[in-house]
Amino acid sequence: MEQHNTTYSVQLYIYDLSRGMARQLSPIMLGKQLDGIWHTAIVVFGEEFFFGGVGISSCAPGGTMLGPPDSVVELGNTEVNEEIFMDYLSSLGETSYRGDRYRLFEHNCNTFTDEVAQFLTGRKIPSHITDLPSEILSTPFGQVLRPILDSIHIAPPGGNVINGHNNHS
Q1: Catalytic residue among 4, 39, 107, 128
Q2: Residues in Cβ contact with 163 at an 8 Å cutoff, skipping those fewer than 6 apart
Q3: pLDDT tens digits for 74-100?
Q4: Which residues, including other chains, have CB under 8 Å from residue 42's CB and lie 6 or more apart?
Q5: Is 107 one of the annotated active-site residues of the chain?
Q6: Are 14 and 35 spatial neighbours (Cβ–Cβ below 8 Å)?
Q7: pTM above the 0.70 mark?
Q8: Is there a catalytic annotation at residue 109?
């Protein structure tokens, strides 16, 4: 008897938080070209999932204040079902991806999507996205700005926090 494994498509939604400003201003300010300041989210099971200063959130695809994504990357398919995925997200949300663990450079929305993409599909997200912090920090201006940038928490409004404040029942 043959087994039918259901697979689900997994997409990476990519947003430029600078709305094109990075492309114009980075050569002047950083002395190197950055194409965008990237925020990413994983879209699977008809929902968009992302990590920010409040923890892991979800919304309808393109449903945050950022509007539709600037681009979409097909990451492939997964055999992980929704129940397993939500358990996995729940455990991440209680450990490494609590809101207070968010760091703009070291542990951000893109660290999250990279980890989740590998869990679901075995594939990483594009390296130009995960390399962005080191690109910025390798410039003198980036070093000067670092203390300010480190204090920024990006959480686009419009999502629902998946497991809000440790509700121990």
Answers
A1: 39
A2: 55, 56, 90, 93, 94
A3: 999 999 999 999 999 999 999 999 999
A4: 10, 11, 12, 13, 48, 49, 50, 75, 113, 116, 117, 120
A5: no
A6: no
A7: yes
A8: yes
